[in-house]
Amino acid sequence: MTGSRASVNIGGTMYVRAAVLCLCLLLEPQGLFSANVEVLYAPNDAPLDRLVTLYQQAKRYIYVSVYGLTYPRAVHALVAAKKRGVDVRMLTDQERTQEVKQRTALETLRLAGIPIRVNQHEGLMHLKQVVIDDEINTSGSMNHTTSGNSYTMSAWTSSPIAPFH
Fold first, then answer.
1. What number is the average pLDDT over the span 86-109?
2. pTM for the full model?
3. Which CATH architecture has domain 34-157?
């Protein structure tokens, strides 16, 4: 191998589905289907609490790529989804696994049977994206931490999302 960066395979299915969903929503032929966009601004829209609600509504799968995961409600919602038969998978950053709260959250997910991939390259895995049921793709500046409701999140969906209360 030449160059200073190593190539690492970190979960083909998760990224293929996310990429296909993003491309379909961005490049869809006129009239084939429509996308809805929900942008949640902090703090009034409580974006992380909204995402927890989406976790609670997932039926088939939840694929999460997030730098920081310490928010107890998010961890609980992911474990509950796994228990009800939803395929839950996690990708996170190696550097963050050195923090006690992050290790505790990841161990809780692992004990629930949720597969966790941790990046092995020297750069940060700083992505904050979730794909749910081929219908919802979220992205933004929000980690799944106790300060998560202080950041912005956008959700692209193939159908309207149920109102958040």
1. 92
2. 0.74
3. 2-Layer Sandwich (3.30)
